[in-house]
Amino acid sequence: MTQAKKLLDIYIDEQGSAERMIPVVGALYRERGIIVTVFGRKLMNGSTVDILKAHRLSRHVVGSAVTVAETSRVLTALARLQPGSSRVDIGMLAASARERQVLDQDDTLSNFLADALKDVPPGTSVLDQPRDVVLYGFGRIGRILARLLIERTTSNNPLRLRAIVVRGGREGDLEKRASLLRRDSVHGSFNGSITVDVENSAIIANGNFIKVIYANQPEDVDYTDHGIDNALVVDNTGVFKNEEALRRHLVPKGATKVLLTAPAGDLKNIVYGVNDSMIGDDDVLCAASCTTNAITPVLKVINDRYGIENGHVETVHSYTNDQNLIDNYHSAERRGRSAPLNMVLTSTGAAKAVAKALPELAGKLTGNAIRVPTPNVSMAVCNLNLGEVTTREQLNDHVREVSYHSALRQQIAYSTSTEVVSSDFVGTPEPAIFDSVATIVEGNRAVLYVWYDNEYGYSTQVLRCMQKMVGLHIVNVPA
């Protein structure tokens, strides 16, 4: 057999194994609320190619190749055990089972998995009943949150998108909103079907009946009129920027909590994974900004290990809807100039906002921003003076270990490619992607490059805050 034929046969075998995994992954999620991942990459609603690509991460994460056949054995055993709602990484479990030499023994593998799953609650949902969610505003973040919520909808999913509140109501508005959810120039087509119920002013997406409510201010809405109660309202308009304004969302009947998808000076600014322990019984919170969510986890990792004396963060940020397509009046300095044609120097509060999540960095960081002619994916350049001398290899190894084997593995992705550019990171679920190739270290001075999908990556952080605000805690296996 030639080498070419051998390689092709191996790929075809792996492809077949991956195809057989898809219905099992789907059934575990629909029936048990189990999110199956491979080295942090979610397989739910994924394709055969998605599964194969996830396995390629194994050499970086555990130092050796983990095959689809090995993870398939773990998945089969997992399906037999039928645990409760959880997030299970079958890639990490397969690597550990192989190391313990139990991967090829069904009974021993089942015992190994049962032990790994011992902290998973037995139920198929961690909440007694579903929790209603209302998106107030339907811009870039609102539509991505809608996609994230809809794709996770099952009989066991406790978060249900029930309504969207927008201004307008002119003829054709509903169809336009549905079209924007269906097709996206950056993130591609919606994964499923979308229809419009004009008579009931609703969008039906993958079987979800989502009421579209037209209102000019929060006080104009009575959610109970639409069968919505005890709702979490997610404000992504950017209009209500302080606690007093956000509390207007709690005036209508049926709304009990509010989360802002932007920074606010007089509220707890939550960066999930860093200071989400601050989420308690608060009825009004904010999820900080996309940039703050990108840089804070990385800065925490560096500060915990080396200490940060001071530094400067420069964000190279994609243009946003706040800017003009062509030169026109804008109340902010420079932002009136054409976004697709210029790099626009502007300000950012992200560096100062880091101190809300990491008080130990208060007064140590400055920041600025450059808006650039790309529609999505940004970068933060962190120029830091550290508390001790290190090397590029030592610093990179530390971040790599944390990104793969710590509680921050859902917040920091680790890139080793010498060829990646911004568009390669569209749709990355982690809010921060550490570019290890670009790291510069000289003595106690380090320059770190952190990519981030300022739309999708940030929205996954917002979703995690939403889950914790309603008491939804998904156990990770392995811990």
In short:
With 479 residues, the protein is an alpha/beta fold.
Q: Identify the quaternary structure here.
A: single chain
Distance between the termini: 43 Å
- Overall, the morphology is globular
Specify the number of helices.
13
What are the segments in which pLDDT stays under 50 over at least 5 consecutive residues? none
Q: CATH superfamily membership of the largest domain, which one? A: Dihydrodipicolinate Reductase, domain 2
Give the rounded overall mean pLDDT. Answer: 93
CATH class of the largest domain: Alpha Beta
Widest beta sheet: strand line-up: 6-7-8-5-4-9-10-11
Could you explain how this protein is built, in words?
- It is a single chain.
- The protein is an alpha/beta fold and 479 residues long.
- It folds into 3 domains: 3-116, no CATH class; 131-262, Rossmann fold, CATH 3.40.50; 290-455, 2-Layer Sandwich (Dihydrodipicolinate Reductase, domain 2).
- The chain is 32% helix and 22% strand.
- It has helices at residues 3-32, 48-55, 58-61, 68-81, 90-99, 106-116, 140-151, 173-182, 243-246, 290-305, 350-357, 392-405, 456-469; strands at 34-38, 41-42, 86-89, 131-136, 159-166, 194-197, 202-205, 208-214, 231-235, 255-260, 284-286, 308-318, 344-346, 365-372, 378-386, 412-415, 432-435, 440-442, 445-452, 476-477.
- An 8-stranded mixed sheet has the order 6-7-8-5-4-9-10-11, with helices on one face. Strands 12, 13, 14, 15, 16, 17, 18 and 19 form an 8-stranded mixed sheet that branches. It has a 4-stranded mixed sheet with strand order 2-1-3-20.
- β18 and β19 form a beta hairpin.
- α7 (140-151) packs across α13 and α10 (290-305) packs across α12 (392-405).
- The relative contact order is 0.11.
- The model has no long low-confidence stretch (mean pLDDT 93).
